[in-house]
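Board notes (copied after class):
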Amino acid sequence: MNKSLKVDQVYILDVSDSSSVIYGDTGNACSRSRTIAIERSIPIFRHAEGRFSDFSVFTRPVPTQILQSHSIPAFHSHNELSVTHIGSIHINEITASSSIQIGELHRGSMSSRMKYVKQESDIELGSSLAKSLKVY
């Protein structure tokens, strides 16, 4: 018997950073995200700063867990209906290499790496340097 899924409404506010929304059955899904976030007390952007190779978090291997077929618990369901019905799905944000799957996913592999750097500044507000950098 063929099974089908009926969804009346899907509301998603934001999808970003190597994330996906998949409707229907999928064999494989794979997404990767790498981010360097630099927060400064004075907002200065320096072109081409921060290389992924500068931070070990981006070069270490992604931990994986191989499941043996005998360790996966068996799941059996008896459903006389051929249609599963969902009224609505509301999602605020899908981000950082994540996925929402409506349907069957056979295999998924997602990973997200982020390096967050916070930099304080010794530049005093009101100084000539702050004014030249347009910091108010």
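Comment from the instructor: The longest strand covers residues 26-40. The CA atoms of residues 12 and 91 lie 5 Å apart.
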